[in-house]
Specification:
single chain, 96 residues
Length: 96
């Protein structure tokens, strides 16, 4: 269950019956991208640090600013953070 104070982070989700543990990537992404100190405290109570690091390494939808900050907080090298890697579109790659 998402605490009342954090429900605005999930504006596009029907939170009735929503289980954050069932959607860890989505939940962790929203808190890392849009959350505050209280949201981060809840995140650390809800998910293991290894799970948060995994999402940081694999989630491309984080903004570069958020990805850089959280990489520093969790000690994840920038070259292991998906959102900080250069993305090549299939169209661009085909023309190189």
């Amino acid at each position: 269950m998402v605490p009342n104070g954090l429900q605005t982070l999930f504006w596009d989700t029907n939170l009735t019956g929503f289980n954050p543990a069932a959607y860890p990537d989505y939940t962790i992404l929203r808190v890392l991208e849009y959350g505050d100190g209280a949201a981060f405290a809840w995140l650390r109570e809800t998910f293991a640090e290894a799970e948060i690091r995994r999402v940081l390494r694999t989630e491309r939808r984080l903004s570069p600013k958020s990805a850089t900050f959280w990489a520093l907080v969790f000690g994840v090298p920038a070259d292991e953070v998906a959102a900080l890697q250069e993305q090549t579109s299939p169209v661009t790659a085909a023309h190189e």
